[in-house]
Amino acid sequence: MFDIVTHNVSNQTIICHCEELTVNDLQEVFAFGARSFDDLKRMSRCGMGHCQAKYCYHHANELLATWMGVAESELSGTNHRIPIRPLPLKMLIGSDL
Q1: Cα separation values, 57 from 77, 88, 93, Å
Q2: SS3 of residue 71 by DSSP
């Protein structure tokens, strides 16, 4: 896997393509107190796009670990949830409308 930290990516490198978040965007969220991927998700929408963090999770965690000065394995995991779809009201009330 591509190691973004050792390749000295610029602050304008996009980490989350779905939400168009750059390294600089995530640095700002880190400065406001984000210390886990779930914090990044809540504070910036990183990982909340179409891919549901399949592409940005590793890179965002790699940046967090570097900024915190810890190994990536020391960071807490994320809570992946199954996407929820709306239900038609007739399914809830059990009658034909």
Answers
A1: 10, 33, 39
A2: coil
The C-alpha angle with vertex 55 and arms to 54 and 58, in degrees rounded to 5, equals 90
Per-residue pLDDT of the chain (97 residues; tens, 9 = 90+): 556 665 678 899 999 999 999 999 999 999 999 999 999 999 999 999 988 888 999 999 999 999 999 998 888 877 666 656 777 777 777 765 5
Give the Å distances, CA to CA, from 11 to 5, 60, 63.
11, 13, 11
Tokens of 85: 């779809």
Q: How far apart, in whole angstroms, are the C-alpha atoms of residue 17 and residue 70?
A: 25
Residue with tokens 């504070």: 43
